[in-house]
Amino acid sequence: MKKAILLLCLLFALQIHSKVVAQLGEDTENVVFNAILNGAFRLYVQDGDIQTATFSSADDYNLGISETLGIVPGFTTVSMEATGNWYLRISAPDFIPSGSGTGSIPINNLGVWCEATGIHQFGTEVTCAYQSADAALGLLNSDVTLIDLGTENSGDQTDNLFILHWLMGTMQGSMNTATMFSQLANGIFSQGNYTSTIVLTMTEIP
After folding, report:
1. How many of the other CB atoms lie within 10 Å of CB of 115?
2. 68: which DSSP letter?
3. How far is CA 69 from CA 21, 65, 66, 95, 182, in A?
4. Residue 157: inside a domain
5. Between the CA of residue 78 and those of 34, 43, 91, 118, what are the distances in Å?
6. What is the DSSP letter of 173?
């Protein structure tokens, strides 16, 4: 009798299980995931965002000064992050008095030349016409292209890393050909303190 009851229970359990299995099913739905990769362009001034040029001797006025003598720190490190190609322009207004001083110092007394220290190098991924002190760019009030596209210059900061070296009154490259001494003597500006703000502009190339 006990065996019959046990057998009946097993049969009943199997019936219930088969019904449950028969009722189980599957359903499928999809999730669409969109990835939107917009362009990213960012210019960084890593150091050297404040420069101070001090003229304190006849040689400084006659020969000019640079990062090795007279300008502190004398160089600026810049980097770029870009998902596409780009170029860099530079401009600045003339120096104007910041306290004492009269007149204004023409901005082309300030010169700059560039050094590529990242993976991208001049002559391949990027180009620059101002790669030495002798070829320095004398700054202008209007934009001048400082670093341009070579083959392909998209990349991160390890790719696009550059040092801008500053000169003042050295009369090199396209800088002002008159000494700071002669300009001072001609009354273009006087002794005193002057300031200017250099503008670097990174532009995407479509």
Report:
1. 15
2. T
3. 88, 6, 5, 20, 20
4. yes
5. 34, 7, 15, 10
6. T
> CATH number of the domain that 76 lies in?
2.60.40
Number of residues that this document lists for the chain: 206
Alpha-carbon gap, residue 140 to 75, rounded angstroms:
18
pLDDT digits (tens, 9 = 90+) for 17-26: 555 445 678 9
**Are the C-beta atoms of 118 and 81 separated by less than 8 Å?**
no
Q: What angle do CA 142, 78, 72 make, to 5 degrees?
A: 85
Total structural domains in the chain? 1
For residues 52, 55, 59, 65, the Cα torsion angle rounded to the nearest 10 degrees is 20
Please state, in angstroms and as integers, the Cα–Cα distance from residue 166 to each residue in 12, 42, 137, 151, following that order.
94, 23, 10, 27
pLDDT, one tens digit per residue, over 113-162 is 999 999 999 999 999 999 999 999 999 999 999 999 999 999 999 999 99
16's tokens: 């219930």
> Does residue 6 sit within a domain?
no
* pTM summary value: 0.85
Whole domain around residue 161: which residue ranges? 41-204
Tokens 């860099």 — which residue?
88
